[in-house]
Amino acid sequence: MSGPGRSPSDRPLPPVEGVAHRFVTVRGVRFHVAEAGAGEPVLLLHGFPQHWFAWRRVMPGLARDHRVFAIDLRGCGWSDAPGSGYDSAGLVADVLGVLDALGLERVRLVGHQSGGWLGFRLCLAAPERFSAFLAVNSAHPWPTRRFGLPLYAWRYWYTALWEYPGVGRRVLRHWPGLTRAMLRYWAGRSAGVEESAVREFAQACRAPHRARAAEQVLWQFVLHDIPALAGGRFREQRLTVPTLLLLGDRDPVVRPQPLLGAREFAGSLTVRVVPGRHLLPEEHPELVAAVAREHFGRA
Questions:
Q1: 49 prior amide bond cis, ω within 30
Q2: pTM of the prediction?
Q3: Strand partners, 245
Q4: Would you tell me how many other CB atoms lie within 10 Å of the CB of residue 280?
Q5: Which residues of the chain have pLDDT under 70?
Q6: Does the first or last residue of the chain, that is N or C, have fewer Cβ atoms within 10 Å of its Cβ?
Q7: CB neighbours of 226 closer than 8 A, spacing ≥ 6?
């Protein structure tokens, strides 16, 4: 493990009390893992445009009675950013490989935003590896048809500036104000992200290789996951991992209505709406930790 100072990557790791750091190599890529606590293992998956530091306020609450691992996904934070491998299938293989490298046969899983979507893909691909799953501010793969994708797609307008090949990387590198503005908007003014964290997440996307990686993650979602959603391909799969979907009642991106009524495909899925917006781990970290512990206890 390395200390809280400089990592083998390109920038110093921000210090968080009680958190240690290690690096594991999977599929030729070095992944950064932040670790805290002791007990049954919990894996945390961050969303975009954040990295492991998005969990800094949740980890202490979970680490009281769990061994918590927050990984930086491929291309993010202090993990390597190779030129390919950013489709959902590749990210699923990455996470399963990191679990193997850490010696974790079965874990509890928490994913926020795009990390929540990845969590659903993981639970469908390898349900035996996950005893329970908490998805936060995330869509699931079985939206109600009567709402349709076009009705809510406009809420993702900002991704057009980040995802198009050759364009997204330039926006992320040279227009960090957009990243900062979106993080502030998602969380809201009353319970926003600390300004130091806003700057950290925006700065993390500005390195050329990381901006390119972020662009690829979003573009791969456009190429593969959206057509699968639109074509109803996930309706052939069933979710068996006990799953709780935690949503903010004022989330400007992920609205609850299309996500209700998925029992036919995910009988083990429960949806819970709480006060908040799109960055619940930033806005209400104690609530997220408490809901996770309650859900894990039931599962």
A1: yes
A2: 0.94
A3: 135, 271
A4: 26
A5: 1-10, 145-155, 190
A6: N
A7: 149
Using alpha carbons, list the distances in angstroms from residue 287 to 146, 165, 249, 291. 31, 38, 14, 6
Structure tokens at 119: 């969590």
Judge whether 204 and 51 are in contact, CB under 8 Å: yes
Query: How far apart are the C-alpha atoms of 251 and 178, rounded to whole Å?
Result: 18
End-to-end alpha carbon distance in the chain: 32
Which residues have CB under 8 Å from 88's CB, separation 6+?
117, 118, 121, 220, 221, 224, 225
**Cα–Cα distance between 139 and 114 in angstroms, integer?**
8
Q: How far is residue 286's CA from residue 108's CA, in Å, rounded to a whole number?
A: 18
What is the per-residue pLDDT across 161-188, written as a single tens digit (0 to 9) for each? 899 999 999 999 999 999 999 999 999 8
